Amino acid sequence: YAMLLSLIFLIVLVAAVVGFVFRHEIKTNFESNLNLALRDYNVTADRHSEAVDTIQRTLHCCGVQNYSDWERTEYFTQRGIPRSCCKSQNDCSEEDLKDPSKAKLKVFVDGCFFLVTSTMESKMSVVAGIAFGIACFQLVGIILACCLSQYITNNQYEMV
Length: 160
Known about the structure:
The protein is mainly alpha-helical.
C-alpha cells in the first residue's frame, strides 16, 4: 500500500513540475487552439463552437485578442460576430453584428485569451494549496503504512 501511495505521489509531483516548466507552451497551445476554434466556428453547434460560446458568455469576452478577430473568419462573412459576444442578447441584431463599427458598441471588446489565462493564473494558488494538502495526506498515509508494516513484521516473530 505504501508503494502504491508513493507511486501516486511521484506521478502527481512529476505532473506538477511538468505543468510549471511547460506553462508557456501550454499558453501558446491554448492560444493556437482558440484561434482554430474561431476559424472553424459554425452554426451547427459542434463541441468546439459550444466551448467558444461558453467561454465568451462566461468571461464576457469576444475573440482571441479582441472582438475584431471574428472579422477574419468565414462565419463573420455569413452572419457577423456570434451572439455569444453580445453584452445584451435583447439589444443585439444580426445587422449590428455584421458591421464592426456598430458591433463595437454592442459586444464585449476584450479578447478571451488574456481573460482565460489570467483567470487560470489567479486560481493556481488555490489549486496548488489543494494539491499540497492532498500530498501531505499521501505522505502521512505512506508513513503510517510503513509503520503498520513494520509493526506487523515485528509481532510475527514475537508470537512464535
